[in-house]
Inverse folding.
């Protein structure tokens, strides 16, 4: 019996009609539903997930994995590769970070792993809330995104979307890409909320415009850009 059918059986006939119309989503703010609408019935797509965090919890890519897409999941959290290999065996799963140069950086591990970060500024921000604390630190190998794609993306494979959630280092991830060689159709970047009218007064907006991307959609924290050179 499927999980949905088990839930329906437990809740009884009163709630069965509502459950029947549920739309599965795994992203924190519905980003995967926007992407699902963009790509509609596209098969055999490719994604790259930087700061993938978890195989399906708050994942922008899991709904596509279930549709038999494949991609690269990158996350520095110790043990993340083993979990991704278990639940996402068709993907390429990398336990490493992304930075401007090849180096080792101090990775701050929180009691809530969704907050793990290389950024000292984010550590200071997050620990203002007494329920969050750093429980350990570890030196993690980091590569530029362009180098990772050179090594792990099959030659000639177009990237349908790149999603980045690097807890304060999203701009470094963007800067580390080889934009002449790797141009995803869509890019999702997390940023503090600002008015869309101010987009091209922000560091993120200016960078993406210079790279040949325009804003396409957004959620509260996530901005979705489209490659205007391919449309």
């Amino acid at each position: 019996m499927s999980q949905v059918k088990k839930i329906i059986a437990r809740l009884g006939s009163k709630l069965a009609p509502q459950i029947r119309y549920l739309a599965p989503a795994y992203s924190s703010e519905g980003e995967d539903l926007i992407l699902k609408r963009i790509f509609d019935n596209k098969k055999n797509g490719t994604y790259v997930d930087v700061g993938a965090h978890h195989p399906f919890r708050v994942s922008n890519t899991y709904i596509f994995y279930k549709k038999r897409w494949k991609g690269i999941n990158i996350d520095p959290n110790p043990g993340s590769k083993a979990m991704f290999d278990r639940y996402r065996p068709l993907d390429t799963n990398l336990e490493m970070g992304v930075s401007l140069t090849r180096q080792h950086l101090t990775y701050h591990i929180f009691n809530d792993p969704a907050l793990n970060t290389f950024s000292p500024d984010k550590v200071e921000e997050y620990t203002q809330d007494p329920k969050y604390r750093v429980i350990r630190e570890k030196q993690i190998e980091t590569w530029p995104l362009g180098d990772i794609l050179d090594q792990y993306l099959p030659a000639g494979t177009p990237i349908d979307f790149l999603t980045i959630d690097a807890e304060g280092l999203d701009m470094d991830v963007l800067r580390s890409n080889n934009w002449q060689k790797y141009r995803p159709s869509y890019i999702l970047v997390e940023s503090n909320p600002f008015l869309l009218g101010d987009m091209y007064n922000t560091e993120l907006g200016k960078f993406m415009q210079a790279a040949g991307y325009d804003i396409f959609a957004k959620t509260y924290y996530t901005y979705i850009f489209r490659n205007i050179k391919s449309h």
